[in-house]
Each structure stands twice: as C-alpha cells, then as structure tokens.
Amino acid sequence: MFDNIIPMFRGFPPQQCGLLGFCSPQYVVETNGNVYPCDFYVLDKYVCGNVLTNTFDQIRESKAMTDFLREDKRMSVLCHDCSFRKMCYGNCKRMNITMFDDEGCGYKEFLEFAHSSMKDIARNITMKG
User: Fold this and answer.
1) Are residues 96 and 104 in contact, defined by beta-carbon separation less than 8 angstroms?
2) Which of 14, 59, 93, 118 gives 4 a disulfide partner, CB atoms 3.0 to 4.6 angstroms apart?
3) What CA–CA distance (Å, rounded) separates 58 from 49?
C-alpha cells in the first residue's frame, strides 16, 4: 500500500488494483491450470479458462472474465464527499466490503492520520531513471 500511495503524491498512478477503483484481470492460476480474474474471487463462478487448453486472449475475452469486470461494486455514501476519494476511487469491489461500510472507512482513517507524513516522504524521494 505504501509503495502505491507515496508515489501517488508525486503524480504517479497506483499499481495496486484496489487503488485504481476498478477491477482489472489479475490472472490467478491454480495448480490445475484454472485461471481466475482476481485472488479474492477464486470461485467456480469465476473460472475464466485453463492455461492448458486456452490462450490468454481467450481467457481475457471469456464470458466469466467479461462478466466479472462488468459487475457493479457497492459504493459507500462516505465516498461522495471524501477528501481522499481520488486516492482510492471507492476501492475495488472486494476491498470496499472489507475496508469500509457506510459508517467508517479504514483508508480514510489511515490517510487522515498519515497523509502529511506520506506527502513529506514523496517530496523527499529522489527520482532516478
């Protein structure tokens, strides 16, 4: 989480799907070759294919993957006026059920506490490249 939030204070987009605010394929491969869209959704309903019989193009374009990516996610009423909304965009559909509800948000509580320190760290990082 720190590896994503601190660079965000420097204008870099997050790499963690939970901080993008939407789901993207993560291609979780189980030992039998079955592929799932996300490590939180390794469920029969979400089998997108199998690496032994399908190409990754077929897996990405499968009905299970398409349905997973199009599923709605719950948004808390707390998100509407949150000063950190652009840091998590309401999180991914799995994390937004574990990190907050309509009465409290773990991300907001953490960022209210740590955002000034994290901004200072981000300002002091020397970018090499």
Assistant:
1) no
2) 14
3) 8
Sheet with 49-50, strands from edge to edge, namely: 28-29, 34-36, 49-50
State the residue for tokens 């960022």: 111
pTM, two decimals, is 0.76
Give, for 25, the enclosing helix (H) or strand (E).
Answer: none
Longest distance between any two alpha carbons in the chain, whole Å: 50
Q: Are strands 49-50 and 28-29 parallel, antiparallel or unpaired?
A: unpaired
Distance CA 1, CA 18 (A): 9
**Closest Cα to residue 72, out of 51, 100, 97, 103?**
97
Instruction: Report how far apart, in Å, the C-alpha atoms of 21 and of each of 32, 57, 117 are.
Output: 30, 24, 23
To which residue do tokens 């090499």 refer? 128
**pLDDT tens profile 29-45:** 999 999 999 999 999 99
> Quick one: which H or E segment has residue 35?
strand 34-36
Pair 36, 42: CB distance under 8 Å: yes
